[in-house]
Write a structure and sequence with these properties.
mainly alpha
Length: 98
């Protein structure tokens, strides 16, 4: 039996997510960032705006949005980008911080 070969420069998975320790949303109720089933219209817009205000003050906003775009995250507000924002062709551009 031969040993599998691994890339020489393995990084601990935690290193990929370490930025989350500094997130403004850390410890907050996730319902601010994720919509309940069938949420539409004004309630959805207001919830997303609350999430964007948290993201606007976040020191790791760019890493968060970048991760969501790279992972094709389907749900929630990440780095100030909603689901609809991430699906737009110009979604590589972060909204201006408030």
């Amino acid at each position: 039996m031969t040993r599998p070969s691994y890339p020489r420069q393995l990084r601990p998975v935690g290193d990929l997510w370490d930025w989350q320790r500094h997130a403004a949303c850390r410890g907050m109720d996730s319902s601010i960032f994720y919509s309940p089933a069938n949420e539409r219209g004004r309630p959805r817009r207001e919830r997303e705006e609350r999430a964007r205000r948290v993201c606007a003050e976040c020191p790791v906003r760019e890493q968060c949005a970048g991760m969501a775009l790279a992972a094709s995250e389907h749900y929630g507000v990440w780095g100030g980008l909603s689901e609809a924002d991430r699906n737009r062709p110009e979604s590589g551009d972060l909204p201006a911080a408030s």
